[in-house]
# Entry
Amino acid sequence: LEDAGYYCIDNLPANLLSQTMIFLEASGYDKVGITVDARSGDSFLALPELVEQLRLHVDLRLIFLESKTETLVRRFSETRRRHPLSSDERSLREAIVLERELLSEIAQIGHHIDTSDLSANALRGWVKDLISLQSSRLTLLITSFGFKHGIPLDADLVFDVRCLPNPHYDPVLRPQTGRDADVIAFLEGVPEVAEMLADIQAYVTKWLPCYIGDNRAYLTVAIGCTGGQHRSVYFAEHLAAHFATLEQTLVRHRELR
# Structure
């Protein structure tokens, strides 16, 4: 965020958020990024209501970063850092469980990004893309993934395309992805691919107004195949192209490096 020109504040106590926003606005800051400390006690529990109040007069986006428990344990172990909520009486895993409980309410009103399999550079690019869009419109996020690596935690809708022929079993196509011409030609030669793509487009098109009416800022559609290299990538790219004329659309491929 700082690279994008934002003034950033880290680990702000929740009870200081309103005062800080007033000060920043009076000081002329128009692009601000704030992380709020979960150790803020009772004031943190009131954060969801406070965020909704701020949204009435501030262009505010709430991004909620999350990860699988095993990934969090590994990250803390690798960095040898202490979890903010851990103690002599509370283990790392217990601290993570407690943190999820504390964040459960605020998580419901934020946009989720599952960082379990994201590199720092990928996360940086994803956040940069999100903040570049108009906050007044719903943003459709379309992601491909491989079921063998787990379903994305941030998915609102999940579609399974594993029943379609897999290019992986063709030695020529195996090292390629769903964005390559040979793989595209292979999949477009299968009638069921076009049929399933049309069905998914029709489903999302039908129910998109309902999600917009629910005052959502983001809707994440996840397309999964076995490894996340071919079929899901093809579908995600085509869905993004289809909906780009209707809504703000971003596409990412979790398993492509």
About this structure: Strands lie at 7-13, 32-37, 63-66, 111-114, 139-146, 157-160, 218-225, 248-253. Residues 183 and 189 are 10 Å apart (CA to CA). The chain has a mean pLDDT of 90.
